Every structure is written in structure tokens, then in C-alpha cells.
Amino acid sequence: MRLHPAEWIRESAGYMKEKNKTGNWLLNAVYPRRCPICDGLLSREELYLCRNCVEKIHPILGARCKKCGKPVGSEEEFCRDCSRTRHSFDRGFAPYGYHGELEASLMRFKYHERQEYAGFYAHAAFFYVGKQIQRRNPEVLVPVPLHPARQRQRGYNQAEVFAEKLAEEMELPMNARLIRRVKKTKRQKELGPAERRKNLEGAFALAKPGQMKYCRILLVDDIYTTGSTVDAIASLLKSEWSRTGGFCLCGNCKIVCEYFENSFPISETYGKINII
């Protein structure tokens, strides 16, 4: 049974106290922890959220789209987007919807150097959908890359920062060099669904073509809207696997895509290589 945010935060208390014992006190003194919802400073007693914000965000607890993980009506299997679109990824999961307080939080994380929010995002993602990810047995987490010019401008890749923290939670490796963004595209949020797909044509490439060594990949991004970015990378990975003659005797390989929402998504694909 999934818990309300206040309950999982209380359950995390022992975990956080143990982490603080082992060494983050100096880092917290130099870079004070902030509530990812209101951006206020956290007290030593407050874990991931301040007391005023615990009740402000709510996870997706009802029916979800069986493809992308967005909330749907109790009688629906797929959301409107997924009922009309053939995706390259297999399955998506997201702990939260992209709206309200969390939308503002993710914008600060993405554009205003609030990298410290990643700890909360990763712990929430692991708490709410971690078991579903683990059942797919991913070998590695791969963040969606930024174009080098955009990363230099921003100073960091928020998907990589999130993926690193999530990898720690899941005790799995993270590989930020598997995929490169080779085309500087327009910002996706400014485009419609068809324009998004067109915008991403040829945008990604494998860093080392012909050397694919993973069967089950968890793609990590911060926000899921139409799935165009995840689809583009999933298609690239699957085509590479097919081109190099990859196969799996167990018949259980997957490419997994994780985004933190409709903010933090996760997806999966069945075939020779799977993207969760």
C-alpha cells in the first residue's frame, strides 16, 4: 500500500538520521538543505520537506496509463496520448503529476541551479515506483543527455544529477556517456507533438557505436510530456541492438525509461533490448 507523503517522510526519518551520522554534516553547513517545494531552508529536524509543505504535494495513487504512467480515469487503460501514439519505449511510471507546486520546483531544479533537490526527487521516485523498476531488473541508469552547448550554458544536466541520486537509491551503476546529443534542437516545450518528433530526428547518437553491452536500460529524465524524447532514444538503442546482432537467451531483456514525473518518468520496452 502506498503512503501519503507525510507518512513516507516519517518512515524515512531513521534512514536520513543514519545518513547524517555518516558524513553529510559539513556539506550541509556549506550548502544548507532547502525544501524543494517552497525553497526555504530546512531545519535539522526536517528531512526532505519543510513542515508547511508536507501536505502540498500528492503522488499518483489511482489508475495510471498502462503505457506512460499518467493518471487516467478508473475505467481507462491508456491516456489520450498513448491511445493515439505508438511509442518505442515499453512502459512509463511517474510518482507525481507535473503541475502546481511541483512544476515550480522542477523549474528551479532545471534552470536555477537547485541541484540539491535531486535527493528528494530520487527518494520519492524510489519509494513510490522503485519496486516496479526493480521487477524489470535494469542493469544501468542512463540519463537523457543535453547538447554540450546547452549544458555549458546551464552548468549541469538536471537529468544526470537526478539519475546519479536515483542510482544511489537503487544501488545500480549510472552511465552518462552511453548516449550523446549531437544536434542542438529547439526547446521541446515550445512545440506540438508532431513538431517534437520532427525536432528530435537525428538528435541522439551512441558514443561508441557497435559496442552496446547492456540489455536492460533505465532511461532517466525529469519531465515527461508526450514521450518524444524517450521514444527517440529508445529507437536508437533498439536499432543499434538489432544492427549489431544482439540477442538474449533469457528472452527477458528490457530497455527501461524513467522520468521523475509526468514529472519524473519511467518506461519499458519488450524485445531483444528493453527500455524501462
Quick take:
This protein is an alpha/beta fold and 276 residues long. The protein is built from nine helices and seven strands, in the order αααααβααβαββαβββ. β4 (216-221), α9 (228-243) and β5 (254-260) form a beta-alpha-beta unit.
> Which stretches are poorly predicted, pLDDT < 50 over at least 5 residues?
12-22, 244-256, 266-272
SS strand fraction? 5-15%
State the helix count: 9
Report, as a whole number of angstroms, the end-to-end distance.
23 Å
What coarse outline follows from CA principal-axis ratios?
A: globular
Helix content: 25-40%
**Total separate domains:** 2
Structural class: alpha/beta
On the 0 to 100 scale, the average pLDDT is 80
H/E topology pattern: HHHHHEHHEHEEHEEE
The count of DSSP E runs of length 2 or more, i.e. the number of strands, is 7
Any chance you could write out the topology, listing elements then pairs?
Blueprint: H1 5-11, H2 13-30, H3 80-84, H4 100-111, H5 118-135, E1 140-143, H6 148-154, H7 158-170, E2 179-181, H8 193-199, E3 204-206, E4 216-221, H9 228-243, E5 254-260, E6 264-270, E7 274-275
Parallel strand pairs: 1-4, 4-5
Antiparallel strand pairs: 2-3, 5-6
